[in-house]
């Protein structure tokens, strides 16, 4: 707080004949802080003294429900993440299985082609 603010608030208390010193300004500042602190403490107690207990219970219940909702959302997010991971793994397994089946199919076609070529060579060699 500035000195001029203290002086304007306390002009009534200080007669002009009394000199204003740093000591007096400091004392006035400490008094103002004490008054402000007691006012804050009083304001903190007012809701407890004059508050509505039913409204307080409702607020606590609302806070509890909001907490439960947040926990449920976290559980849902965890479940979704787990489902995505399982789905991704399953799709990967299916893709690997498809690639394996395609490779086996290609190998069968190649084997049949080789067998067919061998069969023709044998036929050709027996005919001549």
Task: Characterise the protein shown here.
The chain has 128 residues and is mainly α. The protein folds into two domains: 1-51; 53-128. It contains three helices and no strands. It has helices spanning 3-9, 22-50, 53-127. It is rod-shaped. The N and C termini lie far apart (120 Å).
The helix-and-strand class reads mainly alpha
- The tally of beta strands, per DSSP, is 0
How much strand? Answer: under 5%
Sketch the topology as an H/E string, one letter per element.
HHH
Helix content: over 70%
What does the radius of gyration come to?
45 Å
Major sheet size, sense and barrel closure: none
Low-confidence stretches: none
Shape: rod-shaped
Distance between the ends: 120 Å
Number of helices: 3
Q: How many domain units?
A: 2
Give the overall pLDDT as a whole number. Answer: 85
Summarize this entry quickly.
This protein is mainly alpha-helical. Helices cover about 85% and strands about 0% of the residues.
């Amino acid at each position: 707080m500035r000195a001029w603010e203290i002086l304007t608030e306390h002009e009534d208390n200080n007669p002009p004949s009394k000199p204003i010193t740093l000591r007096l300004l400091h004392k006035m500042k400490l008094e103002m802080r004490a008054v402000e602190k007691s006012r804050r403490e009083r304001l903190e107690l007012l809701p407890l003294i004059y508050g509505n207990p039913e409204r307080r219970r409702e607020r606590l219940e609302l806070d509890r429900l909001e907490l439960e909702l947040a926990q449920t959302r976290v559980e849902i997010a965890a479940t979704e993440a787990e489902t995505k991971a399982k789905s991704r793994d399953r799709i990967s397994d299916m893709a690997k299985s498809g690639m394996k089946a395609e490779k086996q199919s290609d190998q069968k076609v190649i084997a049949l082609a080789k067998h067919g070529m061998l069969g023709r060579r044998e036929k050709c060699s027996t005919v001549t």
